[in-house]
Amino acid sequence: MTIPEAFEDQEIFVTGASGFVGKALIEKLLRSCPKLGRIYVLMRPKKGHTIEERLQLQWESRLYERLRREQPNARSKLVAIAGDVEQLGLGIGSADLERLRNVNIVYHSAASVRFDDALSTAILLNTRGTHELVKLALEWPKLKAFVHVSTTYSNPGVLEVEERVYPPLADWRTTIKLAETYDAEILDIFNLKYGNFQPNTYTFTKSLAEQVVNEYRDRLPIFIFRPSIVVSTIEEPVPGWADNFNGPTGLLVACGVGILRSQNCDPNIVADFVPADIVARTLITSVYKFMGESKSRAKDSDLYVVNCATANISPITMGEVIDIGKTFIRKNPFEKTLWLPGGGMTTCPVLHFVRFCTMHLLMAIVVDTLLRLYNEKPFLMKLQRRIFAAFSALQVFAMTEWHFQNDNFRALHDVVPANEVSNFGFMQHANINYTEFFQHGIRGAKEFLLKESPESSSAARFRVKIFYVLDFLCRGIVYSFLLRLIFRFLVRLW
């Protein structure tokens, strides 16, 4: 049976459909499995838009352009379901629950990926939300596969991560009860102690969600799919597509516009990035494999876990990412550049602090002062505070290297029929050209995130040349000032 045949007439329920992974997954399902039944997507009204309006806006986005061109009638297979993962029963009404009784496949990718969420919020979204969906799925008699999308960083204390569930950091039932009972501020006071000193609430609550899934493995056809850091697409439906500034995309954009000059990061760490279209492909092939082996799988067997990680397939260090970005961005600069694209990494926190004060804060003060003089709204100091908070939350990930075992992930390529490798395989991209990949990623950031032309205007290129001169002059003034201070100090010392 081919992969599209396995999905023929199947009814699919997707949470997190408006997220990065969810968007890519839905597009891939509709385009590559054209005979599937329906895709029910859980959505809530947002920013004045109803769920139907939000779904239509997503359908009309650039990501779905190829799908609209090749299969214009695919829109009829998307059905919006009103609900909220943070609510009991996911906030789904009785009429919609009845429509979901025929669901065959569940993709649970909804989660709060903010590392600075309050503990109670993260628990209700990531842990209780998983439990609420699991309880609903128990009532769906035709269910064949339930995919819980977790993260390879759900156990950050383990540096050699296997494809298995690790012992719990806390009891998930007690944790949910605490979030339902106590004030958010009280829980935040005990956050580090209760969370066993996890780096953030995201990894802690995703770890607890895996415990929920593991406990129900004998009652549901369920498994865990753990992507690492999801980045822009490598091939389809368009190279370089992304819908957020997370991961290296945000890093490159911040360096590219000149507001990120220093990072407290180890440049020799091998980073684990996986393109969004590879995640979408393997989410589909993992279900294909799981359903094909369902009859031979023993009920008391360990939970099936897939580490969707690629560092041992196509390794690249953080330093190499920055070097590629700086080289290409200076050739193809952003239109909104505020200073010369650049930035550097250091493992020394003192040096980083000095750089941050002189290159980040000082620059923010100057720019905001000029904006006030021109009666414009200042923004850079506020942005620098957000950058500082974001990098503080990511500090442990910037200084630690994990190794993810991925035998189950690699095996997904082997189950793809030979004539479908180009459509569902991924090992053909093993020897990825990272220079070309990040060039596409930067073009994608310009087009999809900053709403600019993928190619720089002559004005942007000229502005960068001016910044070269200004940067050289500023460095000369600063170095001269420092040398003068040192000289005076030495004279007084003698």
TrEMBL record:
Keywords: Lipid biosynthesis, Lipid metabolism, Membrane, NADP, Oxidoreductase, Transmembrane, Transmembrane helix. The keyword Lipid metabolism applies. It is a multi-pass membrane protein. Residues 359-452 form the Fatty acyl-CoA reductase C-terminal domain. One of its GO terms (molecular function) is alcohol-forming long-chain fatty acyl-CoA reductase activity. GO terms for biological process: long-chain fatty-acyl-CoA metabolic process. It is found in: Membrane. It holds the Pfam family NAD_binding_4. Residues 14-282 form the Thioester reductase (TE) domain. It catalyses: a long-chain fatty acyl-CoA + 2 NADPH + 2 H(+) = a long-chain primary fatty alcohol + 2 NADP(+) + CoA. Its EC number is 1.2.1.84. This is Fatty acyl-CoA reductase. It comes from Drosophila melanogaster (Fruit fly). The lineage of its organism: Eukaryota, Metazoa, Ecdysozoa, Arthropoda, Hexapoda.
